[in-house]
Amino acid sequence: MDWWNIKRKEAERILQTDGEKGLSEQEAAHRLSTHGKNEIRQKNGKKSLVRRFFAQFQDFMVLLLLGAAAISVVASYGNGEKDFLDAAIIIGIVVCNAVLGTVQESRAEKALEALQNLSAPKARVLREGKEKTVPSTDVALGDILLLEAGDCICADGRVLESVGLKTEESAVTGESMAVEKDGNAVFPSDTPLGDRTNMVLSGGYVLAGKGRAVVTAVGMETEVGRIASMLEGESDRETPLQKKLGQTGKILGIAAILICTVIFCMGLLQAKPPFQMFMTAVSLAVAAIPEGLPAIVTIVLAVGMQRLSKKRTIVRRLPAVETLGSAEIICSDKTGTLTQNRMKVVETADGRGQAGKDATEEIFHFFALCNDCTEEKGKIYGEPTEKALLEGAVQRGIDVGSLRKEMPRIGEIPFSSERKRMTTLHRLPEGGWVSVTKGAPDLLLERCRYVVEGERQVVLDKGRKSAIQMYNGEMAARALRVVAVAFRLWEEKPPIKEDVLEKDLVFLGMAGMADPPRPEAKEAVRLCKKAGISPVMITGDHVLTAEAVAEELGIRKKGDISITGQELSKMSQEELEAAISHCSVFARVAPEHKVRIVKAFQKGGHVVAMTGDGVNDAPALKVADIGCAMGKSGTDVAKGASDLILTDDNFATIVSAVEEGRGIYDNIRKAVHFLLSSNIGEIMTIFVAMVLGWAAPLLPIQLLWVNLVTDSLPAIALGMEPVEKNSMCRPPRKQEQSLFAGGMGSKILLEGMMIGMLALLAFGIGYIYFDEKGSYIIGQTMAFAVLSLSQLVHAFNMRGEQSLLRIPLWSNPFLWISFGIGVFLQTEVIMQPALAEIFRVMPLSSVQWLITAGLALAPIPIVELEKALTAKREHREAAYKIETE
Questions:
Q1: Are 155 and 187 in contact (CB under 8 A)?
Q2: How many C-beta atoms surround the C-beta of residue 163 within 10 A?
Q3: What gap in Å lies between CA 688 and CA 705, rounded to an integer?
Q4: What is the largest CA-CA distance in the chain?
């Protein structure tokens, strides 16, 4: 259907809907079931559990292990033994690993889906005559869309009415210019897509104005649905950290394969059975290669995202979790983020720039007219500044409802962040019209020609303008938000145009409103500075207002400068980059300035977080390293461009998110540290034994069991470790900094050698003191137990850089649970006769268990000593640095 070729009433008739009432809930549900949800089909559907399970077997080393199990079956059958137990155990352990991998992957996917649903776009529709907000997927064919500045357009629609409605449709048409919409227009059928100005298109968004449209196409039937490849869901992309770990894992994997090859060759040279050595080498490679690193990181990130969502931060893009810990600059809006966004009129001034209740009573009649707030049952709903002005009118005894009936609004030019003003046109009871304009005093004065003084209008000369500007400055210096109002009378109805209605105005007066800082903002700023993060205020408010609030919160310190939007426009990018390190306040800033500010900070090598809520904030949010959209006041467009959504619009929440981000990165390091040191321990156990010409301290199935018990649960549990108390006492981490920085690489190697040596020591003690001549079973059992249990114990060493004595014992119950499960499984394998026979071990005596427990617990005192020596060295280095400076 060529909807642009028919009149709007005809479109309503065809779609069987009412432009004033919309669809009924029952009819909307029926149409959704008939025509389907309003969503674009994803290119790659969700993997089924079966597909996900079999995907676990695509790893080369797992396939090699299965091949070895098959060879074992063939060899056993060829020898006439028909002993398939080893092969069955190997296959069983591989299947257990696959199940565990499937569960981990499913859990991570569900966590990410839940978080995506939290940030899913919404749409405002008219149902049964009432406005209703629904998920965009629940918009039905024939629904009436209610559109205003900042809304994302979620379906194609025929415009029914528009007031200054302008949209951006570049995602569909490729045209980046704003498109003004006109519901009265009708176009030929062959009109190009970009010229159909009586249509709104899915994938676009509203730049200005407001309007209504009837939905003509949903989902795959929309224009964007026909070119679905442009907007298909994002493919699963690895985060930078996952990519680095994937590469690290490959390097370590190659090294492990080479070592295992050397071990195999050494075994052959020592005349050990080739097939046994082959099985040992392959099992060791499977156990030692850290192929699960990226998967573990995904789970830790997903857990971190869930924790952030509980702290009122919704993560939309996974890499943002990594970047949070590196934030050095937080550029924050003032109103509602640093302040309470609960404005109240506390001071007024008349046209002479003088305070006085009687003289300024009249201005509230005009503030009530030029106002989009609504009043229901004694409550006022709307934008905070307008709400404060309307409340001021009500408090002064003005009957807002009667006033608006007497002087009905017949046209408007909406407020926008670029214009910083709003104009409405009203019909007067006695005939004629009046236009009312409110906005920033300094900008409004430029459009005024007259001023009201008492009962008369006089020319606004330089002296009068200077007096008004001076009083405006005094009010702003007291951290008041000042809004001025002006009007103009018309004998004939004027056109609704900016250059007509907002010219030669009569200045009436000003109102000053206070928006006190949030109580928690001052502490959040202090915490920022302690953590090496510089908070920067960016606001559209007057510079004196911004400076007053910044000084009260501690953002602005002695020697800092403030830059206004006007000054910024005159500066080159090079000049801005040179001055920005000393600037903590940007005032009277337009949205396009924010991109320049972010780029200037980034040029200085800083990682920048930026808050935003408006349509035009989207470019800055995209350019910033971490774009933070406001959950309450933010538009759909801002949310769509952001990395994080702050559900309470609070600066303290950003700081809390940064702290949590540092904790998440620390937990990833802990998990990686644990996995790699454990894997190196397994390699060292076999490698050193081969070099010394000993018997194999561990059998292939025992290596695979250790890998199964120790690799997953403790690493995931470390990802749930609470944020360390000192995380905000250190400077931000540089993005280019290696994951293994701070000596972590050498610690991994040394601790891996420690685990290997403890297992070898257990093997030696068992063989020398307890085994019968010609048998190694007690030695192998003790080595098997120590290798597994020492890794479970070693996980507790990973909890922090400081001593375990300084970490609350039960603050991470998940680690204790994983430890308990691991110990239970390991002891059952050894002590249950049936399992002991399968794993070629022997139940240990009390003495042997005491020795095993002592060796398994040894990592704690050894690593505690290492931490103490490291702390002592760092303290000595810090003292030396202070002395030399």
A1: no
A2: 16
A3: 20
A4: 118
Question: Residues 400-424: pLDDT tens digits?
Answer: 999 999 999 999 998 877 788 999 9
Residue 718, Cβ density class (10 Å: 0-12 exposed, 13-18 middle, ≥19 buried): buried
Terminal C-alpha separation, the chain: 78
CA distances from 124 to 24, 139, 221, 638 (A): 14, 9, 20, 17
SS3 of 820, please?
helix
Options 333, 442, 649, 711, the catalytic residue: 333
- Other Cβ atoms within 10 Å of 174 Cβ, number: 9
Q: Which amino acid is at 871?
A: A
Alpha carbon distances (Å) from 331 to 586, 651, 742: 10, 10, 29
Q: Given a cut of 50, is residue 231 above it in pLDDT?
A: no
Cβ atoms within 10 Å, residue 775 = 13
* Cβ count near 195 (within 10 Å): 14
156 catalytic per annotation: no
CA-CA distances (angstroms) from residue 689 to 682, 714, 763, 840? 11, 27, 10, 19
Cα distances from 61 to residues 71, 199, 349, in angstroms, run: 15, 57, 79
Give the phi and the psi of residue 558 in degrees, each rounded to 5: -60, 130
Strand partners, 482: 512
Count CB-CB contacts under 10 A for residue 123. Answer: 24
- In whole angstroms, what is the distance from residue 489 CA to residue 497 CA? 15
Residue 79 neighbours by CB under 8 Å, 6+ apart: none
pTM above 0.85, yes or no: no
Tokens of 531: 């953590």
CA-to-CA dists, residue 793 to 203, 763, 822, 842, 865, angstroms: 53, 19, 10, 22, 16
Torsion angle of C-alpha atoms 486, 382, 206, 412, degrees rounded to 10: -30
**Cβ atoms of 797 and 863 closer than 8 Å:** yes
Q: Indicate the length of the chain as a whole number.
A: 885
Task: Determine the Cα angle at 412 with ends 409 and 417, to 5°.
Answer: 140
Which of helix, strand or coil describes residue 865? helix
Lookup: tokens for 161: 């009415």
For residue 179 the two structure tokens come to 């498109």
Q: What's the rounded mean pLDDT across residues 195-205? A: 87
> What residues form DSSP beta bridges with 152?
205
| Residue-wise pLDDT tens digits, 674-722 | 988 998 998 899 889 888 888 889 888 888 788 878 877 898 899 889 9
Which amino acid, one-letter code, is at 328? E
Q: Which residues contact 457 (CB under 8 A, 6 or more apart)?
A: 450, 451, 506
Is residue 683 within 8 A of residue 677, CB to CB? The reply is no
- How many other C-beta atoms can be found within 10 angstroms of the C-beta atom of residue 854? 12
Angle, helix 651-691 to helix 700-711, in steps of 10 degrees: 170
| SS3 of 796-807 | HHCCCCCCHHHC
Contact 11, 215 (CB under 8 A): no
**Residue owning tokens 């619009």:** 649
The residue written with tokens 């048409």 in the block is 173
Predicted confidence at residue 229, as pLDDT, reads 45
